[in-house]
Every structure is written in structure tokens, then in C-alpha cells.
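Quick question, first post here. What does this chain look like in 3D?
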Amino acid sequence: MNLRELEYLIAVDEERHFHKAAARCFVSQPTLSGQLKKLEQELGVLLIERSNRRVDMTEVGKEVVTQARKVLARVNDIKTIAQTFHDPMVGDLSVGIIPTIAPYLLPIIMPGLNKQFSDLKLWLYEYQTEVLLEKLRRAELDLLILALPIKPHEFEEVDLFREPFRLALKKGESLSKRENITLGDIANREILLLEEGHCLRGHVLDMCSIVDVTESAQFKATSLETLRHMVGEGMGMTLMPELAVPAKTTKRDLIQYVEFSDPKPNRRIGMLYRKNSYREEAFNNIAEQIKSLLPVSIFF
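> Answer (accepted):
Ran it through. C-alpha cells below.
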């Protein structure tokens, strides 16, 4: 039994005419008839009722045709998978991204990625870092966008950008009137942080430890937007990633976002994927496209 014989059988079922079925399959009628006879002999059953006036499928023939269609459909699926391997910019790609990046980066990059790679379907999933890493290990995700570095170094890394931080504090406070500040200006102060599990929390603590900045024990936020609200209510200050800073502010805004002078505190954002992935070319293409879409306030 081979795939061509199954194609011939389906053609006969749909055309109900040997000559038309042969023409559809681009073979001679004797060739088609001979191959179907061979198939019947191999299976040991009569698949087609032949007469001078019409061609009908036997009951077992109808069942075999149903299965033949399923087999050929699976073959097409395999061809599609092979095409994806051949052209990495075709098919589905599952991308995981951390919550402190997703709502701010995705609106910037997704229109451009969809336009540039129109044959690539990106499925997006938002989780905290540890969940993303486990899903990447289990091959439930193909690619991650998150803060680097990640230890241990079990995945391939691709740098995307370094995202500066700004000090977010309520307008009217002394530091809010400064054009630039340094980490030393917030020494021995308390800052608001995200709850445990967010990698941003660790990055901020690491940066601020050198000037004895401590974490506020009053409240821990579940998201950057919650942090923003807390700052606006005068509950404290925090460090806000550049992409989460509004492009424009008005006099009615309660928060001032003050830039740090060089060297600016920042976090390194990049991509992770499993080593030796067959879609490495796709990941590198995506990385280059993302870089081309970033605002000038982000540096490499």
C-alpha cells in the first residue's frame, strides 16, 4: 500500500468514473485501474463495484476511503511541519514574556513583527520568570522575552536592549523638581517594590543596595500599575522602567518621572531559547526586527 494508491481510490470515489479519476491524477486509466486492483489484492477485499454503467464503492470501500482521507490529511500536516523547518519564518511560534515588559513592549513591536513576518503566527503568553523558564524547558514555549541574565546558563541568550530606570515620585516632593538625580540622592530612603516572584524586584534591590536604599514594608505591589497608583497616592517612591513611563504627562498627573544621570541604572532585556533549536534563524530575525522598532530612549 502506498499514498498514490490512496489518492487513486479517493479520486474514484469522488469522480465515480475511472477515466475522469485517471485524468485528475495525471495517469492513464490502465495504470489507475491496475494500482487499485493491486490494493484490493493486498487488503483482500473488494473496494469498488465495477459495471459498464457506473462505479460504486463497496461498504468496506467507503470505510477505507474515509481512512484514506485522514491519512492524506496527516501527510499534509507532516509536509507543513517540514516546511516550517525549511523556512523558520513560517508557522506558529509560542512566545513567553514577563509582566513588567509585556504591556509596554508588545504594543510597540507587534504591529511591525506582524507586518514583517506575515507568515509567522506569534502566540503570546505572560508569566513570571520561573514559570516561563519551566515552560521553555518542557518545550511548551519556543522563545522568552525577559530580563537577563538567567542562571544557570542552560539556554541561548540574545540581547535586545538595556532599559533605563527613572525615579517615580509624587509631584511636589523635593526630588521631583530636579532635572537629573543619582542613586546617591535616594540613599537611606525607602522605595516601593513588587512582590516576590518578579525579577524586577531583585534587579532594583541589587542596584539600590550600594546606596543603602531599603524596601518599604508598608505594601508590596502585584504589578507596575499598582506601584504607579501607590506612588500617585503619596505612599512612597519607586524605580520605573523606561517603557512603563508615559510618553506625555500633563499638569494634572500626580507623578513625576525623574531621569538619572549617567551611568543610568538599567536592566538588560533579551531573549532565551533552547540550545540547538532549529528555529534559531527565526529568533535572530525577530531580535533584529525588535531592535529596529524600539524608541530612542532605549539603548543597547
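The CA atoms of residues 90 and 120 lie 5 Å apart.
The mean pLDDT is 89.
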